[in-house]
Amino acid sequence: MESFTIGEGSLYGNGDEGIPKQQIIINTEAEWHALKEQMDSVNTVSQQFTHKDVDFKTHQVIAVFENVKTTGGYHIDLNLETSKTQRTITVTTKAPEGMATTVMTQPFKIMAIPRMETPIIFQ
Questions:
Q1: Where in the chain are the domains?
Q2: Which of 38, 95, 99, 122 is least crowded, fewest Cβ atoms below 10 Å from its Cβ?
C-alpha cells in the first residue's frame, strides 16, 4: 500500500473557512466529507483533488494547514517515515522565492497514508 497526495495548494478565503493552523488525522468517510465541506465553504477547492474518494479500510488521511499568509507562493512538504513503533510526519513549509502575489492565502497539503496501528507523530 502506498501513500499518495490527494490535494495541495492554498485556500483563498482570507481565513473565512474557519480552519486554523493544524495537522488533522482523518479516519472516517464522515470526517473526510466534513473537512471537504469546510474547505469548500468559500471557494470550491476540493474539485482540484486528484483523489476524491478514499478507502478508509486501507488508508487514513493526513491534512496539514498553515496560518493564513499575506502572499501567495507558499508550499507544504510532508515526509513520512515509518518504524515499528510509530510513523513520523515531518512538515516543512517553504516560503516563496523572489516575487510573490499579494493575496491572502492559506497553504494546505492532504495525503492518504496506509492505515496502521502505530501512532502518528507530527514534527
A1: 4-122
A2: 99
